């Protein structure tokens, strides 16, 4: 059996096992072990490869960025920073058409700039924003749709766990990826906000249950001092983490430590943290960190198996012979990412696609930071699309109102999925949106 055939069969086996319910990291390890065994004909070599990759994969202090940003996200969630951001955005934007929807997008963008976890955003704003929108006469389908759509900002606006994972897999600077994600994240948030205004203006019954919203009474408004107090924690966190990172005061790992320290101080000062909740936060942080680290280890094993098979070089030569060029390659690549997003999660897509596609991107001379931003947007579309749609399932499991079905949530996300695809195409054809904030946009 030729090495190329072994690699091809390993991809099919991987997708089948993941679809059958096996954890993606276990699948990567098992398939890679079997692949090396078949290629070299010796299980000892395969076992040695597993051992060596496990030792080399995360032997760097840069991996400290994972638990630090995860810890920051959990502390921010427990301190009700997302809830406060929503209340401020709600009051500021209340006079706009679809104001509560825009407030959800704006507060999700703020929350994303602190946590970097889409699933956390979906869970928090399902509890915070959906009941408010229903109370003021918004369509249930629109309410859950805007929460699901704007939750993807958590993986695009830095800090982002997906960008951290991409940085490790592609050997790129996590700090540069964070910087490159700022403008695309803001563009996506602006696209969502503009789309909501257009929907509320031209198709009001898709936004409001009765065609018009219920007015916000003057008594429900908060004084400016209260607004400032609610917004201050978000400003402090964003300024300390992203401001320090972009200004060059510290690395991505140090930015994570700063964010965790500030988030801990906020949670303590607000009296939202006790010994029991702190222990729970630390345990959850450990679970996520171990999960991500295990994924990276197994992805390293998989990458080495593919390199041994010669599959990346084969694909490079094949794509070169087709003469598609960078644009054609990008269209095929993002189409595969979006299709895979309908059946598997975002991290799994990165782990499967990048070892195969990065050599082609390098051969075509693509900027790998830009390639990373486009990749993250493409795989995040899968959070909104059936049948997998992880954000949709998180919203359904968090939702208090059982009258809203899974189908309602998927239909509610459809306009936001279309907007996201439009932004993805814009990022492909206008690379400078991702690169203009970098100090060396060409490299």
Secondary-structure element pattern, one letter each:
HHHHHHHHHHHHHHHHHHHH
Number of extended strands: 0
Beta-strand content estimate? under 5%
Mean pLDDT: 83
Share of helical residues: over 70%
**Counting H and I runs of at least 4 residues, what is the number of helices?**
20
Keywords: Cell inner membrane, Cell membrane, Membrane, Transmembrane, Transmembrane helix, Transport
InterPro entries: DctM (IPR010656), TRAP_DctM (IPR004681)
GO cellular component, one term: plasma membrane
Protein name: TRAP transporter large permease protein
Structure description:
This protein is mainly α. The chain has one domain (about 5-435). Helices cover about 75% and strands about 0% of the residues. The protein is built from 20 helices and no strands. Helix 1 (about 5-20) packs antiparallel against helix 13 (about 275-310) and helix 18 packs antiparallel against helix 19. The longest helix is centred in the middle third of the chain and has 35 residues, at about 275-310. The model has no long low-confidence stretch (mean pLDDT about 85). GO terms for molecular function: transmembrane transporter activity.
TL;DR?
Residues 12-433 form the TRAP C4-dicarboxylate transport system permease DctM subunit domain. The protein is built from 20 helices and no strands.
């Amino acid at each position: 059996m030729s090495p190329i055939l072994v690699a091809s069969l390993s991809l099919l086996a991987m997708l089948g096992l993941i679809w059958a319910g096996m954890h993606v990291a276990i699948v990567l390890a098992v398939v890679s072990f079997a692949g090396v065994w078949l290629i070299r004909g010796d299980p000892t070599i395969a076992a040695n490869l597993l051992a060596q990759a496990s030792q080399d994969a995360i032997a760097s202090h840069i991996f400290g960025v994972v638990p630090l940003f995860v810890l920051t996200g959990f502390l921010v969630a427990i301190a009700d920073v997302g809830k406060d951001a929503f209340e401020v955005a709600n009051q500021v934007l209340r006079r706009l058409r679809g104001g509560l929807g825009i407030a959800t997008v704006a507060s999700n963008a703020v929350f994303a700039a602190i946590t970097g976890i889409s699933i956390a955003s979906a869970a928090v704003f399902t509890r915070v924003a959906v009941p408010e929108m229903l109370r003021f006469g918004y369509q249930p389908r629109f309410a859950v749709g805007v929460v699901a759509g704007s939750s993807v900002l958590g993986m695009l606006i830095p800090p982002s766990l997906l960008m951290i994972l991409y940085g490790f897999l592609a050997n790129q600077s996590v700090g540069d990826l964070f910087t490159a994600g700022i403008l695309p994240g803001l563009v996506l948030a602006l696209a969502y906000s503009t789309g909501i205004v257009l929907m509320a203006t031209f198709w009001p019954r898709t936004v409001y249950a009765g065609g018009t919203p219920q007015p916000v009474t003057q008594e429900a408004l908060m004084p400016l001092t209260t607004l400032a107090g609610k917004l201050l924690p978000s400003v402090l966190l964003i300024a300390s983490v992203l401001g320090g990172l972009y200004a060059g005061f510290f690395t991505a790992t140090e930015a994570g430590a700063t964010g965790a320290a500030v988030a801990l101080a906020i949670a303590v000062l607000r009296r939202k943290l006790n010994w029991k909740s702190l222990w729970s936060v630390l345990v959850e942080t450990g679970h996520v960190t171990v999960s991500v680290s295990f994924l990276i280890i197994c992805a390293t094993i998989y990458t080495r198996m593919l390199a041994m098979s010669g599959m990346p070089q084969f694909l490079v030569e094949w794509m070169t012979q087709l003469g598609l060029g960078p644009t054609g390659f990008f269209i095929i690549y993002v189409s595969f990412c979006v299709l895979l997003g309908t059946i598997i999660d975002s991290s799994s897509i990165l782990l499967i696609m990048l070892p195969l596609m990065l050599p082609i991107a390098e051969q075509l001379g693509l900027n790998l930071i830009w390639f990373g931003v486009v990749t993250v947007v493409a795989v995040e579309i899968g959070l909104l699309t059936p049948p997998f749609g992880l954000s949709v399932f998180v919203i359904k499991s968090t939702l208090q109102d059982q009258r809203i079905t899974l189908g309602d949530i998927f239909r509610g996300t459809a306009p936001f999925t279309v907007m996201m695809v439009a932004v993805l195409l814009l990022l492909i054809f206008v690379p400078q949106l991702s690169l203009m904030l970098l100090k060396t946009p060409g490299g």
